[in-house]
Amino acid sequence: MKNVLIIDGQGGLLGKQMVEAVRKLIPSAEITAVGTNTMATASMLKAGADNGATGENAVVVCAGRADIIVGPIGIVIADSLLGEITPKMAVAIGRSQAKKILIPVNKCNNIVIGTDGKSTTELIAEAIEKIREISRS
Predict the structure, then answer these.
(1) What is the CATH number of the domain that holds 26?
(2) Which end of the chain has fewer CB atoms within 10 angstroms, the N or the C?
(3) What CA–CA distance (Å, rounded) separates 124 from 48?
(4) pTM of the model
(5) How many distinct structural domains can be found in the chain?
């Protein structure tokens, strides 16, 4: 069974969509949702995550236990998501041995070239396909 960690902040909409998609793709996956705030965590739990926690320490602990980490690209950039990602969070995710599926959201002064014209739905579909590939290995 794969341990999938989904990290999101702000309103948790991207994380919510990822929880729903991963649940359909890998029904047996243990999905842990960690929000940078309680609203994001609640949104992901409502979408069907098995476990949920909030804040810096939860990211640090859960990143070390995950097989796959999914979230917006800002989760590996200190002070992104309007300051919700602390340097300690970004380092813990970056150092984790988990495969990281980073969704290139062009917000908070982080612009990823090559994503122009793709909707969030299309980017999530690409992320799900990559998770499918990883989960089969």
Answers:
(1) 3.40.50.720
(2) C
(3) 17
(4) 0.87
(5) 1
Strand 99-103 vs strand 3-8: parallel, antiparallel, or unpaired?
unpaired
Could you tell me the end-to-end alpha-carbon distance of the chain, in angstroms, rounded to an integer? Answer: 12
Say if residue 21's pLDDT is above 70.
yes
> Which structural domain range is residue 126 located in?
3-135
Per-residue pLDDT tens for 89-122?
Answer: 999 999 999 999 998 876 666 677 776 677 888 8
DSSP 47-107: TT-SEEEESHHHHHHHHTT-SEEEEEGGGGSTTHHHHTS-HHHHHHHHH-SSEEEEE----
Torsion of CA 16, 70, 39, 51, to 10 degrees: 90
50 backbone dihedrals φ, ψ, rounded to 5°: -75, -35
Token pair for 25? 């793709």
Structure tokens at 122: 């299309």
